[in-house]
């Protein structure tokens, strides 16, 4: 992925401690199949050489799914594997220094825990900020939760993309979306799930529902997808496929009972009342 045009709603972060006995590649591929639309490699305990190998593997995997890869903490590894960017916390290399090293085209995300830090990161040219930890989490034990009050404040005052993070699960995500988050991030609720693909699909479903609810404008269309009523802003079938996190995957699209060739997706409008079947083939070969 060469350019910085990126947007996302579901951000998946690695966390090897959460899936003993299951390979990192397998777990993250499941997350991508389920619709994660940005991936971060976060390996706090591994030796640097191992982090580099994991980064190489994830670079290849995320490229297959046309999803950006961000490296936590390590700018050198991000550069070595041509990752799309880095994520830095308040104790890490400052944004200005990171930008000077990485240049304007790489994504830089900054963790923030209060609105002053968020405004500073925004003014300093961050591409997105993390807002958290919204809830207490075993992934960062001992960190005080900022609660949904900070999510609400970020939604009111921050104009760059922000992603809510920390203790977010399928049981509490509605409150986070209700507070105004349009992007959410999870470690344990995705990679610690016995079915990361299904966890991602469920998160994406909630994100889509809130997106449609929060912007009931004239572009919102009622459609039926795989037997369920949904709202969408997608103009074309291609956009709809992206909205479902299925870009780059092996799928067949049936629109109003007719199978649509992939070449036609970009030119075929999604109209009010359209009935779609998105048939997703799982497995290799
Ligand atoms: C998307 C996102 N938000 C916040 C963090 C936390 O970064 P940081 O504060 O530097 O803590 P560590 O992850 O390095 O322990 C993140 N990684 N990603
Ligand atoms: C890595 C991280 N950063 C946070 C922050 O608030 O900056 S919260 C967090 C942990 C996220 O993991 P889980 O989804 O398992 O709670
Ligand atoms: Mg860090």
From TrEMBL:
It catalyses: 2-[(2R,5Z)-2-carboxy-4-methylthiazol-5(2H)-ylidene]ethyl phosphate + 4-amino-2-methyl-5-(diphosphooxymethyl)pyrimidine + 2 H(+) = thiamine phosphate + CO2 + diphosphate; 2-(2-carboxy-4-methylthiazol-5-yl)ethyl phosphate + 4-amino-2-methyl-5-(diphosphooxymethyl)pyrimidine + 2 H(+) = thiamine phosphate + CO2 + diphosphate; 4-methyl-5-(2-phosphooxyethyl)-thiazole + 4-amino-2-methyl-5-(diphosphooxymethyl)pyrimidine + H(+) = thiamine phosphate + diphosphate. SUPFAM superfamilies: MoaD/ThiS, Thiamin phosphate synthase. The keyword Metal-binding applies. 2-[(2R,5Z)-2-carboxy-4-methylthiazol-5(2H)-ylidene]ethyl phosphate binds at residues 137-139, 167, 187-188. InterPro entries: Aldolase_TIM (IPR013785), Beta-grasp_dom_sf (IPR012675), Mopterin_synth/thiamin_S_b (IPR016155), Thi_S (IPR010035), ThiamineP_synth_sf (IPR036206), ThiamineP_synth_TenI (IPR022998), ThiS/MoaD-like (IPR003749), TMP_synthase (IPR034291). Its cofactor is Mg(2+). One of its GO terms (molecular function) is thiamine-phosphate diphosphorylase activity. Signal peptide: none annotated. Pfam families: ThiS, TMP-TENI. 4-amino-2-methyl-5-(diphosphooxymethyl)pyrimidine binds at residues 40-44, 72, 111, 140. Residues 10-190 form the Thiamine phosphate synthase/TenI domain. Pathway: Cofactor biosynthesis; thiamine diphosphate biosynthesis; thiamine phosphate from 4-amino-2-methyl-5-diphosphomethylpyrimidine and 4-methyl-5-(2-phosphoethyl)-thiazole: step 1/1. This is Thiamine-phosphate synthase.
């Amino acid at each position: 992925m060469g350019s910085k045009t990126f947007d996302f709603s579901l951000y998946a972060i690695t966390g090897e401690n959460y899936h003993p006995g299951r390979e990192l590649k397998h777990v993250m591929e499941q997350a991508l199949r389920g619709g994660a639309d940005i991936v971060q490699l976060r390996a706090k305990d591994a030796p640097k050489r191992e982090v580099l190998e994991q980064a190489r593997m994830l670079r290849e995997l995320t490229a297959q799914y046309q999803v950006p890869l961000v490296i936590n903490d390590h700018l050198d590894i991000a550069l070595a594997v041509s990752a799309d960017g880095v994520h830095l916390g308040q104790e890490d290399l400052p944004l200005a220094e990171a930008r000077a090293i990485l240049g304007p085209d790489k994504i830089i995300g900054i963790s923030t825990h209060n609105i002053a830090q968020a405004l500073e990161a925004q003014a300093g040219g961050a591409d997105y900020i993390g807002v958290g930890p919204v809830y207490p989490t075993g992934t960062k034990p001992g960190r005080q939760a900022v609660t949904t009050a900070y999510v609400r404040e970020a939604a009111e005052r921050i104009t760059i993309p922000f992603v809510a993070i920390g203790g977010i699960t399928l049981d509490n995500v509605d409150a986070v979306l209700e507070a105004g988050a349009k992007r959410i991030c999870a470690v344990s609720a995705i990679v610690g799930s016995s079915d990361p693909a299904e966890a991602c699909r469920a998160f994406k479903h909630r994100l889509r529902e809130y997106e449609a609810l929060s912007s009931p404008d004239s572009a919102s269309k009622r459609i039926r997808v795989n037997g369920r009523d949904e709202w969408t802003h997608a103009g074309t079938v291609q956009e709809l496929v992206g909205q479902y996190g299925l870009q780059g995957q092996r799928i067949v699209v049936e629109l109003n009972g007719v199978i649509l060739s992939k070449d036609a997706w970009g030119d075929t409008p999604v109209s009010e009342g359209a009935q779609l079947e998105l048939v997703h083939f799982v497995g290799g070969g």
